[in-house]
Fold this sequence. Notes:
Structural class: alpha+beta
Oligomer: single chain
Helix content: 25-40%
Amino acid sequence: MNNSMGIGIMRNLPIILFSLFILMCSCTAREIIMENSEQEGSHVISTKPPPQSPFNLGSGDRIAIKVWRNDDLNREVQIDPSGNIYFPLAGEIHASGLTISQLREEITKRLSKYLINPYVDVNVSNLSSQKIHVLGEVRSPGTFTLEPDTMAWEAVSKAGGFTTDANKKKVLLVRANENDQATIKTLNIHDIFKHGTISRDMYLKNDDVIYVMPTFIANLARFMTQLNSIINPFVNVERGIVLYPDAADVLRGQEKERDILVAP
Length: 264
């Protein structure tokens, strides 16, 4: 009995040794990973962007709607000037202001009256309601379509990039708020990747204005008057413009060096 067991062990010895080798490698790798994690824990940085607010649809946007196993219902519709779409069986739906998921839920709910467990897929095929404006020291200033999750430097890229006189560390973000005011913050696009952290303000919203400042301002009062006349046609507000402290410091030339010059 012992002799047969010995023979069996000898025959399977290569397999046993290989299994032990794999096990030892696995344990060693795990120990190395844990050790590195402990040593580098204080240096780990997060490059995961902050969560963004849902993208809202608007008049002029074209939407592709598909209903699984109901190809006769599949079609592309456009949100009309009143903000509505018409879809078979679902009828007229006010889509403007809704997110993609909200519109999908509404169509699914309405189709459930006629279909058993309908599966609806909704995608944007063409955007025209969401706009951003890129002005100042860029090669091709103008108004551009805002794609979901567009960042400030992507907007500058849409406008042909910086000019030779552009100050990449002093980019103004002008944004209208719910209080009928426009706020001006400052973005430091030049150093945005220095520490691998992406600011929430780097993500643009509908009707945002990106204004790239020049490297030199001879007369601050004259520049502010010029800036006001440039951005006013793009920002429809009645209660005026509010400068965040960081933006005020930048315009006065009193700012301190920071990686991302944005308001908290």
